[in-house]
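Reopening this ticket.

The earlier resolution said the output was attached, but the attachment link was broken on my side. Pasting everything inline this time so it's all in one place.
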Amino acid sequence: MRNSVVNRSTKETKISCSLELDGSGIAIVDTKIGFFDHMLNTLAKHASFDINFSCEGDLNVDTHHSVEDSGIVLGLAFKEALKSKDGIKRYQSFVMPMDDALVLCAVDICNRGYYASDCKFNCDKVGDFETQTVNEFFNSFAINAAINLHFVVLRGENAHHIIEAMFKSLAKCLRDAITISSDIKGNLSTKGVI
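Inline output:
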């Protein structure tokens, strides 16, 4: 079973995460940020991950620490749960439509953290979720999961739709990239190790 449990406490946040990569998309999420909860539930559903995730953060300041630290914890949980990369497909890209939004996501499960995106938003918040934290979350996730993660926003105006397309396309890419294929012997690296 590819699963993990990660707990992290700082002066700004207290986060608990259990993750099952080969799940059925069941999520119990409580960050006290409604739209962010919706996005983490969406990620779990479309990746078929089972996630139990809670975050107590300094929301009296803003949502930045809670969202960024959630990316750290979820990234660590993903890396730990994946364990061996033998037999996985490793790469995936996907273009996700979401009403007016069209977002390309590409991932490489390569044991090297890197994040790039051209996303821009025409509003400061979606609900209580600050749009400036989108890149913070995905950057923290990519670095701590040790994956390459790229987004290209091909079109879109509605911030809710763009962000949701980002989470859904990431979910689809992760689900496919961690799939084990009987055609792959060992790992997909000329170095012999990922």
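Reporter confirms the inline version is readable. The mean pLDDT is 96. The chain is about 35% helix and 30% strand.
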